[in-house]
Design brief:
The chain is mainly β. The chain has helices at about 45-50, 100; strands spanning about 1-5, 10-20, 25-30, 40-45, 55-60, 65-80, 80-90, 95, 105-110, 115-120.
């Protein structure tokens, strides 16, 4: 089970370990974004720090509805105790955890400051 918390700013967050191609790892606090249909989004600084392999540009739509072209990179995420290779989009803001990675899991949270967040694999 992956555990996190709800912040005072009403964001549900969990810490994920992201690994680059040379084995370097970064623990990053990700905001759960159920409106994000991708896997993960990482700040440019973390993409650079991890030396992630460039996959290409992807068309996307930002939360405010504007179209955008985002760079995609290959990353490995520790997910339910197992390494999982996923595309990571490079963003300017906070790291995001999207629905493509959450798929096949149960997400529960208590929507109060410091409330628990749990992500469990479905059987």
């Amino acid at each position: 089970m992956i555990e996190g918390r709800v912040t005072r700013e009403r964001k549900a967050v969990v810490s994920l370990t992201v690994q680059g191609p040379r084995g370097q790892r970064v623990a990053t606090e990700t905001v759960i974004d159920t409106g994000f249909t991708g896997y993960i989004a990482l700040p440019a600084q973390q993409v650079s720090e991890l030396g992630l392999r460039f996959l290409g540009a992807r068309d996307g739509v930002l939360a405010d509805g504007r179209p955008a072209v985002l760079n995609a990179f290959q990353a490995v995420v520790q997910w339910h105790g197992q390494p999982r290779s996923v595309p990571a989009l490079e963003v300017q803001g906070s790291a995001l955890l999207g629905m493509a990675l959450i798929e096949g899991s149960r997400l529960t949270l208590d929507a109060t400051p410091d409330g628990p967040v749990h992500i469990q694999p479905l059987a």
